[in-house]
Amino acid sequence: MNAPGYVTESLALLQAFAGRAPLPRVKALHLPPPPPPGGMRGEFCALELEDGSLGLSYVLLGDTWAQLTAHAASHLQAGDDPLVVAQGYASGSTLVRTIGFAAVNALTRCLCTRAGFVPPSSRDSLGQLDPQPGETIGMVGHFTPLLPRLTAAGAQVVVLELREDLVGERDGVRVTLDAAELRGCRKVLATGTLLLNHTLEPVLAQCAAAERLVLVGPSVGGPPDPLFARGITLLGGSWVEDPAAFIDTLTAGTPAGGSLRKAALAPADWPGWDALLRRL
């Protein structure tokens, strides 16, 4: 399959990083406990590099968690070259792509740490959308924890989903399978799952009217440059402060607490990938 442009651009940026400095090897892949049947809570794995850098990836696409549990060892070993692993982000296999995406995020964190870049903390968990009464906000992916906060502000929400069983309208939230319903939204909030399942670009094509286009979620941690170039106005991710403590909470299925903080990155906050490389 042909990978989307932002995928190939991200991998090219990582290749440039590898050309400037030796990269740490893969240390381990950490998985969360079994997800509850039918649960809507997000679950993520973490790929750890030898320098402590972590990259997160969503594991609830289809049977990804079960596939990772059964077969991850055949695709990833301690000591592997993370740049080679990251190439899997372009794969048509969900399993390989999930691991590759985590490697992309881990290498991005590695560069930021080496270059001394720390993103600003998020002012809220809504991607700084500032929901207003009466407006309709688009949401791509059923980001359950955020819905009550949007509707409490008086906004209506249109959620674009892939799951037919979620379609319907209740409590100010309309779930649809039709991406064209995003065309009337001036604010759109999308989960990082778009980056994993390679659906970002077709969704962006429906968001030409959006003045604020926000990607949020723990797995939003790859190179920002290709995303800002495509009109994303804010990236809201998770910045791990204490890798060891975070891994403990992830594998136990407990809240991360102070082991991470919510970060928000706008184009004006980002010096650029090339600028970070020049700091090495």
Describe the structure.
With 280 residues, the protein is α/β, with parallel strands linked by helices. The chain has a domain at 5-119 and 241-255: 2-Layer Sandwich (Enolase-like, domain 1), CATH 3.30.390. Helix content is 32%, strand content 20%. It contains ten helices and eleven strands. The protein has helices at residues 5-20, 64-75, 82-86, 94-115, 147-152, 193-196, 200-204, 225-228, 243-252, 273-279, and strands spanning 26-30, 44-49, 54-58, 136-140, 156-160, 168-170, 173-176, 187-191, 212-216, 234-240, 260-265. It has an eight-stranded mixed sheet with strand order 6-7-5-4-8-9-10-11. Strands 1-2-3 form a three-stranded antiparallel sheet. It is globular, with a radius of gyration of 18 Å. 41% of the residues are buried. The model has no long low-confidence stretch (mean pLDDT 94).
Features:
single chain; 280 residues; alpha/beta; Enolase-like, domain 1; three-stranded antiparallel beta sheet
What composes the largest sheet?
8 strands, mixed
Distance from N terminus to C terminus (CA atoms, Å) equals 34 Å
The strands making up the biggest β-sheet line up spatially as 6-7-5-4-8-9-10-11
Poorly predicted spans: none
Give the helix/strand class: alpha/beta
Q: Please, what is the average pLDDT?
A: 94
Question: What does the radius of gyration come to?
Answer: 18 Å
Shape: globular
Number of continuous helical runs: 10
Strand content: 15-25%
CATH architecture of the domain at 5-119 and 241-255: 2-Layer Sandwich
Helix content: 25-40%
Order of helices and strands: HEEEHHHEHEEEEHHEHEHEH
In CATH terms, what is the fold-level topology of the domain at 5-119 and 241-255?
Answer: Enolase-like, domain 1
According to DSSP, the number of beta strands is 11
Assigned CATH class of the domain at 5-119 and 241-255: Alpha Beta
